[in-house]
Amino acid sequence: MKFYSGFSLQNESHFFDSFILKSEYCVCGFSYGAIKALRYAKEQLENRQRIDTLQLFSPAFFQTKTQKFKRLQTLSYSKNRQIYIEQFIDACFLPHKRKEVSHKENILEELEELLEYQWSLTDLIYLRDRGVKIEIYLGGEDKIIDVNAAREFFLPLATVTYIKNANHFLQTN
Predict the structure, then answer these.
(1) pLDDT top residue among 4 and 173
(2) Residue 138 lies in a domain
(3) Does position 173 have pLDDT exceeding 90, yes or no?
(4) How far apart are CA 130 and CA 83, in angstroms?
(5) Which residues pair with 29 in a beta bridge?
(6) CATH code of residue 23
(7) Residue numbers of the domain that contains 74
(8) By the 8 A CB rule, do 52 and 132 touch?
(9) Is residue 173 part of a domain?
(10) Under a CB-based contact definition with an 8 Å cutoff, are residues 43 and 36 in contact?
């Protein structure tokens, strides 16, 4: 199993242990890492490598957000990266108690990439048509992404698990 971390995070896969398929042919990604996981899975298939399952946990889905929202995010990050990351992590855990997470260095370009990323139906169809099972996990109380738009987008091509009272980390308490 290969796991891609969320923006500014590292070693957070334990939050998803109850969902992760423990297989060498499974690729997983959380939030920003979901973008990386999709790219990796597609690349592997193009190179004739085996991928059975793609699991995306709270995939970074901002394509319905306004440019004003995105500019505000990048401006806030540019003003004070440390405060921005702390507030971002706090929001990831809302409405539940924040838990400890490990951080890594991040750059503005990564934030811009996740905010501007457009999920491609073509890429998802490519994976599905080559036998990859696509699983999406969404928290009903997620304060980071547009959960309803993500659900509608992924539903035709993936198994979507909607966890009613869960936050961005899919935690319910």
Answers:
(1) 4
(2) yes
(3) no
(4) 43
(5) 4, 56
(6) 3.40.50.1820
(7) 2-163
(8) yes
(9) no
(10) no
